[in-house]
Design a protein that fits this description.
8 helices, alpha+beta, 3 domains, 177 residues
Amino acid sequence: MAGTYFRTGKTAPGFGMNVAGVKEVVATFGDIARAFSPPELASLMLVGAEIIAEHARNNVLDQELVDTGDLYDSIEAYKINQWSAGVKVSVVYGAVHEFGLERQPITPKQRRFFWAKFKETGESMWKALALSETYTIPARPYLRPAIDENRQETLRAIMREMASVLTKKARLHGGKG
């Protein structure tokens, strides 16, 4: 008979616990664990990663970090291995936008570029950069907020996908789901 009961005993001072029906519980959890064995587990995690990637792309648009669209296009969910998934940003400057850069020295090549842009456009910003010794690019996080602000949505989506997989498996094994 499945159930939990308490008794006093020698396993702990004044308290012990036995679970009746342990074999049935272990068998049930074993079935559940097998339902989510690789590669199904990575597929479940990919559902969550896709939500994070979508919100990160939206953050790129909201912060107007779009010039060529390469940053936006480079954000994608992917399977890391058979157990997990992640979100990657494939452009080199993705980390610069996310974390920023502090007091970077201006190289001679950059200085020549800034002067050329000033001569081409007449914009004072380019002259100021050409005359500067360093520059700073402020952090404009787009990935971390996508993770932090959408944790619950991501977990709910993974749980829905888990329920769907379990329902399908139950139907395959003669259950009514």
